[in-house]
Design brief:
The chain is α+β, with helices and mostly antiparallel strands and 240 residues long. It is built from ten helices and four strands; from the N terminus they run H-H-E-H-H-E-H-H-H-H-E-H-E-H. It has two domains: 144 residues, NADH Oxidase; 74 residues, no CATH class. Helix 1 crosses helix 8.
């Protein structure tokens, strides 16, 4: 369908039709499309846990407080932020850059290649590396001082980089839900969850964080809780 149609069709569906199963492969394809979403520095600090098992779905429903969107879900996708994998992602980028530009001495590289390698070998590690949050505050203070004289990136603390990773995952989540709408599958993003129990259920490492759980299925008419309400556009649109 047209993009505008997909955007208008996407609703947070709270009740799915138990008699209309959805195909796991089609959902998987939508997850694959979600990985094409824009994300900070292309670090791709995410994982998508696609839940199809009925037993796991039942447990997940309880961990989502048995809200209707969870109880009736045909499948679920758990959007997991993996900020702890930044070193692995850096290594992947450096390996890719060597294939693109060649593994040659720095003095033989183009200006573009030098910047790319510097970005992933130096700038990204400085941005993500931290020691119990202390290094982040040191960076924040240094950047604040530099910012007195010129524009500079200021999100330097551990909490700032955590927000960056979650923003990237949110972009992927929206891409996934629009992809599902495009094939007439429905979704509901859920933040009312017991993230600790879900992490244990999925055997996720300590450094991971759950951004949201998205339930999937095909809507029942009563699964839409009324007309879509939005604040008047004139209140939120500011032309400068």
């Amino acid at each position: 369908m047209e993009f505008t149609e997909a955007v208008n069709r996407r609703r947070s569906v709270r009740k799915y039709d138990p008699n209309r199963p959805i195909e796991a492969e089609k959902v998987k394809k939508c997850i694959e499309l979600a990985t094409l979403a824009p994300n900070s520095s292309n670090m791709q600090l995410w994982e998508f846990h696609h839940i199809c098992s009925k037993d796991v779905l039942q447990k997940m429903s309880g961990y989502c407080f048995d809200q209707n969107a969870a109880k009736t879900a045909q499948q679920m996708v758990v959007m997991v932020v993996r900020k702890d994998l930044w070193r692995k992602r850096v290594a992947a980028h450096v390996s890719y850059l060597k294939k693109v530009y060649g593994d040659k001495p720095r003095n033989e590289m183009s200006k573009r290649a030098k910047f790319a390698f510097t970005y992933y070998k130096t700038i990204i590690p400085v941005s993500y590396a931290d020691f119990f949050g202390i290094f982040g505050y040191v960076k924040y203070a240094v950047y604040w001082l530099i910012g007195l004289f010129r524009p500079i990136y200021r999100q330097a603390r551990k909490s700032d980089m955590r927000i960056v990773a979650h923003k990237s995952m949110a972009l992927a989540a929206q891409t996934f839900m629009l992809a599902m709408a495009d094939i007439n599958y429905d979704t509901c993003p859920m933040e009312g969850i017991d993230s600790l129990r879900i992490k244990k259920l999925l055997k996720l490492p300590r450094g991971s964080e759950i951004n949201m759980v998205i339930s999937c299925g095909i809507r029942l008419p009563e699964g839409i809780y009324g007309e879509r309400f939005r604040i008047p556009f004139t209140e939120v649109y500011k032309k400068v």
